[in-house]
Amino acid sequence: MRNIDKENNYLSAKKRLDSIKSFYTHVIVYIVINTFLLLIFSTGTSVKANGMHYGNFYTAIGWGVIVIIHGVVVFSPIISIMNKWEEKKIKEFMQEGTNNKWE
């Protein structure tokens, strides 16, 4: 049973690492794309000519909110508590499965 616990811990840690990597990738893409859009919008001589008005920032604002929500989901202690609860329930169901064989 020890090997199963180690494997479960490894898979749980890998899943957590993948979600953290996903968040950082999301942040990097957000910064790159919005920097590119800002450069496009800021070219020109006058405010109306270069497109620097509030409507062009809806993408950055909306996407920024989504990045913040993604960060909360990845780094929130509540999510960690839920994951521990899931692991506990899985172990309980596995114990029930070994006690109630279909033979």
Automatic annotation (TrEMBL):
Keyword Transmembrane helix listed? The answer is yes
Q: Where are the transmembrane segments?
A: 21-41, 61-82
The 2TM domain covers 13-94
Q: Which UniProt keywords apply?
A: Membrane, Transmembrane, Transmembrane helix
Protein name per the record: 2TM domain-containing protein
Instruction: Please report the organism this UniProt entry assigns to the protein.
Output: Pseudofulvibacter geojedonensis
Question: Which lineage do the record's taxonomy fields give for this organism?
Answer: Bacteria, Pseudomonadati, Bacteroidota, Flavobacteriia, Flavobacteriales
